[in-house]
Design goal:
It is a peripheral membrane protein. It is found in: Cytoplasm, Cytosol; Early endosome membrane; Endosome membrane; Late endosome membrane. The protein starts with a strand and ends with a strand. Among the domains are: 95 residues, Serine Threonine Protein Phosphatase 5, Tetratricopeptide repeat; 95 residues, Serine Threonine Protein Phosphatase 5, Tetratricopeptide repeat, CATH 1.25.40; 88 residues; 53 residues, 2-Layer Sandwich (Herpes Virus-1), CATH 3.30.40. Helices cover 37% and strands 24% of the residues. Helix 2 packs antiparallel against helix 3. By secondary structure, the chain is an alpha+beta fold. The chain contains 27 helices and 34 strands. Strand 23 and strand 24 form a beta hairpin. Strands 1-28-27-24-23 form a five-stranded antiparallel β-sheet, with no helix packed on it. Strands 2-31-30-29 form a four-stranded antiparallel β-sheet, with helices on one face. Strands 3-4-5-6 form a four-stranded antiparallel β-sheet, with helices on one face.
Length: 837
């Protein structure tokens, strides 16, 4: 289709970035043929069809594509106006020679009259089809109302005259609006009252050359355009208290403003206006005006001005020859369709839909926005396909050289279409960008042919070993022929046999292929950390029995399960054997228990700091053997521990004092053993050594009575820091006294609290019923006949007896105890409660 609009050449450069609001196309088919030999004079739009009047007196009914469905020969001169009712079943026509015809489209019966003067306009009642609304008006020198009465005759009434030719009438509901040379009037057909008179602003303009444009937005809002002035009038109900002799309705002008050009037509578009302008411009070469292309603008009315939303200059046929009165703007109610009528051309303007929006975005190369718009409204678009837009976007990115973005978009655009995926892969191969698309290829349930993945791997293998290794790690082994890739890697290793990246990748390929021995061999050669994961995951212990030393050489943290095999393998490498057994012991003290004796020597030789912790934690090492080794090597601390563990604490203490000469350690040892004889030995050894006495005075107070030590100190012996030591002893003694007093208070308070609690408990009532039994005779505690007197004894321990079943109170009158509890232990709870009746 030919688009009948071009953007105004004089617009600023940035305007081209604003998306048009309307799209245009020429009404063709039958219309083209009609306008070749005739000229359009008027047109009326209905939802179902169009009615076109011509200068040669013909009326054509057209479908919305412009095809002729009916033709009426009305006159030999210009058709001035065509009017349709809302149903589209009746039409009213008037012509320049005074003919007026109103008839049904399905019957020619109706009103046919010839007047002696031109009739400029005719308007049918919107509900003309209904019998009680058979009314229409005509306008020439007078505004005449025709009504059909009950005798089926037409009655004529003059609604207005005397103000020149009436050139426009618009009928909506009960309101008739018309324009004459003076202004615009509105008549209420229901009350038969004229309710307003809106005067013409620019009286200098000839009304026949610049006719008034009228348009009802709704049942109460009238839009008036005349010359360069637009007014929006609202019909309102008058307050009954203000009526007096005034009409029941009045008109308020809500908006009035001037435009730059002359108005040829108006139509509502939501809360905006579509305005057809007749444009005259001054020539640059001459001082005279010339007719430019008409403009169709969308404007936003404001109270005293307007805001331009969009403006399009229309290239209609013969626009240079047209005047303002030659253009008309008609619109379809309920649809955003606007018809621009000129003598030799009819252009249809439509609101742009989502398809048009996407067209514009694609034209401006805004592919990402176009793709997003298509995805959001994929149910509403008709001409576009989301995937095709996505492909166009990918092509655009490739042309720009943004290969990574293009490849990333493939994931979203190509989706599950494997054929398109393969085509794109081959295209990226052609332009040498297989690397870009490799990370985005499908690798889940939907997959390409193995040859595609192999092609990419071969490409990486030629140029990028690291990238090749990454793909092997990321891609599942099922995507490609593993053996083919193994062979390719092997061929490359012939040229570069020490390449660590290729060797590691080859090991991974062998692992995928379950050839674990080959993979293990490579990992061991490379000393790769993944070797242990491979061993444990696939239980390859039997494969490494002869490779333990190699494993331990590059990683002493090795974790291997078959202990005896490892020990045998490491027999010639004692330092590695020690590391292995030490790690094993740290994990489980009992797992390698039969090697604990061997470990004593290994610790003594290679790791003395861990020997003492080993001796403390192991319950399986022979103490005599350990003592022998430690004495040979003069390991005093370890020897002391072993002697104490073997029960020779006096010898151990003697070694601490004589060989280590460490009074603090000796005191600590004595504290651990908590043996009075050891303390006596320690005091005896220290009595002639002042530094030892100082240490004892400072630490002995909480374990041994300090008086024992002080009495044994020789008179005149000089002891370092004696005063401080004595002060500390006194302080410790005071502290002990305070602690004892505090504990005593707590004990008394707790005893009192518990006694009160016991008393409260014992003072509570005890329930006695037929379920309880006598603990002596085991009969029911209560008699069957409750009317007879009985006596029951209930002790605080909850044991119950018949009084006669209890033995005598004994030596102490009135004092009795529970036989059961007394047999065990006499104490609280064996007191008595006596119940009599």
């Amino acid at each position: 289709r030919w688009t009948a609009v071009e953007q105004d050449k004089g617009s600023e450069e940035e305007d081209s970035e604003e998306e048009p609001k309307l799209k245009y196309e020429r009404l063709s088919n039958g219309v083209t043929e009609i306008l070749q030999n005739d000229a359009a004079s008027c047109m009326t739009v209905h939802d179902k069809f169009l009615a076109l009047g011509t200068h040669f007196g013909k009326v054509f009914l057209l479908d919305i594509q412009g095809n002729v469905t009916q033709k009426f020969e009305i006159s030999s001169v210009k058709i001035n106006q065509i009017s349709l009712d809302e149903s589209g079943e009746h039409v009213g026509i008037c012509s320049e020679d005074g003919k007026v015809q109103v008839f049904g489209l399905y019957t020619r019966e109706g009103f046919h009259e010839n007047f002696d003067c031109p009739v400029k306009v005719v308007a049918l009642h919107p509900q003309f089809t209904r019998s009680n609304y058979k009314q229409f008006v005509t306008g020439g020198n007078k505004l005449l109302l025709y009504e059909r009465n009950w005798l089926n005759r037409w009655k004529t009434s003059v609604l207005h005259e005397g103000e020149g030719t009436i050139n426009n009438i618009q009928w909506r509901a009960n309101l008739i609006a018309w324009a004459n040379n003076v202004g615009v009037k509105i008549y209420d057909i229901s009350t038969k009252q004229r309710i307003t008179n809106v005067l013409r602003d620019n009286a200098s303009l000839r009304p026949d050359m610049y006719p008034c444009s009228l348009c009802w937005k709704d049942n109460t809002t009238l839009i008036v355009g005349w010359g360069t002035s637009i007014k929006i009038c609202v019909v309102k109900e008058r307050n009954p208290t203000e009526m007096r002799d005034l009409p029941s309705r009045y008109v308020e002008i809500m908006s009035a403003f001037e435009t730059e050009f002359f108005i040829s037509g108006l139509a509502p578009l939501a809360d905006q206006l579509v305005t057809l302008f007749f444009v005259k411009e001054n020539s640059d070469q001459m001082d005279e005006e010339f007719r430019a292309r008409p403009r169709l603008d969308i404007i936003q009315p404001l109270p005293e001005s307007c805001e331009e939303i969009s403006s399009d200059a229309l290239t209609v046929r013969n626009f240079q020859d047209n005047e303002c009165r030659d253009y008309r703007l008609e619109h379809a109610e309920g649809e955003s369709l606007f018809y621009i009528i000129s003598p030799k051309d009819i252009v249809v303007a439509k609101e742009r839909d989502q398809d048009d929006h996407i067209d514009w975005l694609l034209e401006k190369k805004k592919y990402e926005e176009a793709l997003m718009a298509a995805e959001i409204s994929f149910k509403n678009i008709k001409r576009h396909d989301v995937q095709k837009i996505g492909m166009a976007y990918i092509n655009h990115l490739v042309e720009k050289g943004d290969y990574d973005s293009a490849a990333r978009k493939c994931q979203k655009v190509l989706g599950k279409n494997m054929e398109l995926w393969e085509n794109e892969v081959y295209r990226f191969k052609t332009i040498g960008q297989l690397k870009a698309i490799s990370q985005y290829l499908p690798r889940g349930d939907l997959r390409l042919r193995p040859a595609i993945y192999e092609m990419i791997l071969h490409e990486f293998l030629k140029t990028d070993y690291e990238g090749f290794a990454t793909l092997i790690r990321e891609w599942p082994g099922e995507l490609y022929n593993n053996m083919a890739i193994v062979q390719a890697v092997t061929d490359h290793l012939k040229k570069d046999p020490t390449n660590g990246t290729l060797l590691t990748t080859l090991a991974e390929l062998y692992t995928y292929d379950q050839r674990y021995d080959r993979a293990l061999e490579i990992y061991l050669r490379l000393r790769h950390k993944d070797v242990y994961q491979l061993i444990h995951k696939h239980n390859l212990f039997s494969s490494i029995e002869d490779k333990i030393v190699l494993l331990m050489d590059f990683d002493k943290e090795v974790k291997i399960g078959r202990i005896h095999l490892v020990v045998e393998e490491l027999a010639d490498r004692p330092e590695l054997l020690h590391v292995y057994l030490h790690k094993l012991f740290k994990r489980d003290h009992h797992k390698g228990q039969k090697y604990h004796e061997r470990q004593i020597g290994l610790y003594a030789e290679y790791d003395r700091p861990n020997l003492l912790p080993f001796l403390r934690d192991s319950t399986h090492c022979p103490l005599e053997k350990a003592l022998e080794i430690c004495q040979e090597r003069n390991f005093v601390e370890e020897t002391v521990f072993l002697l104490s563990r073997m029960g020779n604490c006096r010898r151990a203490l003697q070694m601490i004092m004589e060989e280590l000469e460490d009074v603090d350690k000796a005191i600590e040892f004595a504290k651990e053993q908590d043996d009075a004889e050891l303390w006596e030995d320690l005091i005896s050894y220290s009595i002639d050594k002042p530094p030892f006495i100082t240490g004892l005075l400072n630490n002995i107070g909480t374990h041994v009575d300090p008086i024992l030590l002080i009495h044994r100190i020789k008179e005149g012996m000089e002891i370092p820091n004696l005063r401080d030591s004595l002060v500390k002893i006194l302080h410790d003694y005071n502290l002990q006294i305070l602690l004892r007093e505090g504990c005593k208070k707590i004990l008394v308070a707790d005893s009192l609290s518990l006694l009160q609690k016991m008393h409260r408990t014992q003072m509570r009532g005890v329930r006695v019923d037929e379920e309880n039994i006598c603990e002596s005779c085991h009969a029911t505690i209560l008699p069957s006949d409750m009317a007879k007197p009985f006596s029951v004894v209930v002790f605080h321990c909850r044991h119950m007896f018949h009084k006669e079943c209890l033995p005598s109170s004994g030596t102490i009158p009135g004092l009795q105890f529970c036989d059961i509890c007394s047999a065990k232990r006499r104490g609280p709870g064996s007191g008595i409660l006596e119940m009599k009746k």
